[in-house]
Design goal:
This protein is an all-alpha fold. Helix content is 60%, strand content 0%. The chain has 4 helices and no strands. α1 crosses α3.
Length: 111
């Protein structure tokens, strides 16, 4: 399969099957949140150019928790696109006015 044709919904079905078999069914919000914190600590401890695999761990863990809360893959992908579209419409500060180590958040006065 070409990466240009990668099917995220198909991936989510496969990941869901694997995860429920290996880690069990149901909500694991606390355990997954703790695992994400551990991955973020690993990201902070390594050089940025070596962090891709750790960031992917965070993505997979987050997607895993989404289905565990009852959302089927198509709904997760729809929510991902919807959030992207919402972010595109928001007003953001000029990134040049921010330090590289601080979060850049949208203008909440317009929400």
């Amino acid at each position: 399969m070409s990466l240009l044709e990668y099917d995220l919904i198909r991936f989510l079905w496969r990941q869901r099957s694997f995860s429920s078999r290996v880690f069990g069914p149901g909500d694991r919000t606390i355990g997954i949140s703790e695992h994400i914190r551990k991955e973020l600590d690993e990201i902070a401890a390594c050089r940025p150019e070596e962090a891709l695999e750790e960031w992917i761990d965070v993505v997979i863990l987050a997607l895993d928790q989404c289905w565990r809360l009852g959302h089927p893959p198509h709904e997760i992908v729809e929510a991902l696109e919807s959030k992207y579209q919402r972010n595109m419409k928001r007003t953001w500060p000029d990134w040049r006015t921010k330090r590289r180590d601080e979060p850049i958040e949208h203008d909440r006065t317009l929400d």
